[in-house]
Amino acid sequence: MSIELIVLDVDGTLTDSRITYSQVGDEIKSFNVKDGLAIVSWRRLGKQVAIITGRKSEIVARRAKELHIEHFYQGVADKKRVLTELLERLDLEMSQVAAIGDDLNDLSMLREAKLAFVPRDASGYVEREADVILTKKGGDGAVREMIEYLIIKEELEEKYLQLWA
Fold first, then answer.
1. Which ranges in the chain belong to alpha helices (H)?
2. How do residues 72-90 score in pLDDT, each as one tens digit?
3. Which domains does the chain have, with CATH numbers?
């Protein structure tokens, strides 16, 4: 079965895990534009994307909206439960899921997914559960590396490149 859904953690995967606060209390995060282009491309291939994150952030909500990510869950303590419920709604199976996470709160989700990815700077405990340890750090193109790994594995390279021809 092919991978139809990728599930993304945010802090430490889509970002470098830093949370910066301004003098007036605004939260600041940085996202990698290369990850964004890969996410958009994955969606244009007819695939689905979900964000399941433990924190709540208006910045992350804005990024999800920019990338047209329909399946967006914040403030999640039990990522496995949310993923299971999402799969029921989408009529998909865990064998069609690839997930990326970097820390202990991602373990339950990573253990269930068909393919578990971690950035190079993930927790050692989480690395033990990974099918693929990426060469990129979180926030430094790790999500793009994951997607391009899947593009090759799923033999979608020609379609992927045609999206931008």
1. 33-44, 58-66, 79-90, 107-112, 124-127, 142-153, 157-162
2. 999 999 999 999 999 999 9
3. 5-162 (3.40.50.1000)
